[in-house]
């Protein structure tokens, strides 16, 4: 079964707007929640990550919001740019011993000029 | 310098053939992985190796056999290819096994079985 649920499947945002992608999980043992960005023809690359001991992490225009009680986390892209157009994956992993990342199903973001 | 490099990038082959994908990382990492991305872009781990030892072997047919000659290399050999094996295969690496170690992906190998 899908360990991490992601929505929406696709998103179209105007340049300068805010892009929001949501994820939810069930496994309370997950302790690391990264977001990966994938451009066409390339491999996924780490964008930003959060641990469950904080509720928010910001890096430039990218912010992760984390709600431990609801088991949800989201990526906010402020002032979205055409260069942000890519597929975004949330993911989660647990503890030591495997570093097994469970990925969401991906969100294809298109930022129109 | 490419951190995680895999070859070939594109591979078109007939059903029943055997093929290999090679992967090398120059990051000095201890852990390497193979992920599969299907036509719907869903990414799923297949194998992980730590210092040449198999750690994770997800539910993958026996036709898939990883080999790690040293900790910088993790190759994937696929026997008796089937149409359903068509996908993008990503090699990846991380410093170690602990959750939170950033996983670095290669650019992918596009496998098409006809």
- Residue windows where pLDDT falls under 50 for at least 5 positions of chain B: none
Structural class of chain B: mainly beta
Radius of gyration of chain B: 13 Å
The helix content of chain A, as a percent range, equals: under 10%
- The number of helical elements of chain A comes to 0
Give your account of this protein's structure.
- The complex is a heterodimer of chains A (113) and B (114).
- In chain A, the strands form 2 sheets. In chain A, strands 2, 4, 5, 9, 10 and 11 form a 6-stranded mixed sheet that branches. Chain A has a 5-stranded antiparallel sheet with strand order 1-3-8-7-6, with no helix packed on it.
- Chain A contains no helices and 11 strands.
- Chain A has strands at residues 4-7, 10-14, 19-25, 30-38, 45-50, 56-59, 62-67, 72-77, 86-94, 102-103, 107-112.
- Helices cover 0% and strands 55% of the residues of chain B.
- In chain B, the strands form 2 sheets. In chain B, strands 2, 4, 5, 6, 9, 10 and 11 form a 7-stranded mixed sheet that branches. Chain B has a 4-stranded antiparallel sheet with strand order 1-3-8-7, with no helix packed on it.
- Chain B is globular, with a radius of gyration of 13 Å.
- Classes of the chains: A mainly beta (113), B mainly beta (114).
- Chains A and B meet through β4, β5 and β9 of A and β5, β9 and β10 of B.
Compose a concise summary of this entry:
Chain A is mainly β and about 110 residues long. Helices cover about 0% and strands about 55% of the residues of chain A.
SSE diagram, text form:
The complex is a heterodimer of chains A (113) and B (114).
Chain A: E1 4-7, E2 10-14, E3 19-25, E4 30-38, E5 45-50, E6 56-59, E7 62-67, E8 72-77, E9 86-94, E10 102-103, E11 107-112
Chain B: E1 4-7, E2 10-13, E3 19-25, E4 31-37, E5 43-50, E6 53-57, E7 64-70, E8 73-78, E9 87-94, E10 104-105, E11 109-113
Parallel strand pairs in B: 2-11
Antiparallel strand pairs in B: 1-3, 3-8, 4-5, 4-9, 5-6, 7-8, 9-10, 9-11
